Amino acid sequence: MEKTKVIFKKEYNPYTKSWDVFAVFPDFKASYGKLQCFTSEGWTECSYDYYATAKRASPDEYANTLEYLRKVFDGSDGDDPLELIVVQKISTKMYDAILENWRS
Fold it and tell me: CB count, 10 Å around CB of 88?
């Protein structure tokens, strides 16, 4: 089974007065300067700066999103299953790989 990293972050929503959790997929290809993200609105790209300034979400905060994403990538749609590995931040090595993706 293939594996991919996922990072959970949160941002404060002043309209709902609550924290919105989103998932960042540093291994997925995205446009230059962007990262693939999954939010409550669905799939999108977010800027690296947006990722960097958002707060880290706790396991309790991201539990429901992680459970949902595990179902998305479980292979039941006919695609190969993908195991999600939760990491805390983008490491230097991961950032170098992201830069390579942006260049290609």
Answer: 8
Q: How many CB atoms lie within 10 A of CB 82?
A: 18
Backbone angles phi, psi at 36, to 5 degrees: -75, 130
pLDDT in tens, 47-80: 999 999 999 999 999 999 999 999 999 988 888 8
The whole-model pTM stands at: 0.90
| Distance between CA atoms of residues 49 and 47, nearest Å | 5
Which stretch of DSSP H or E encloses residue 3?
A: strand 2-13
Interatomic CA distance for residues 86 and 74, integer angstroms? 16
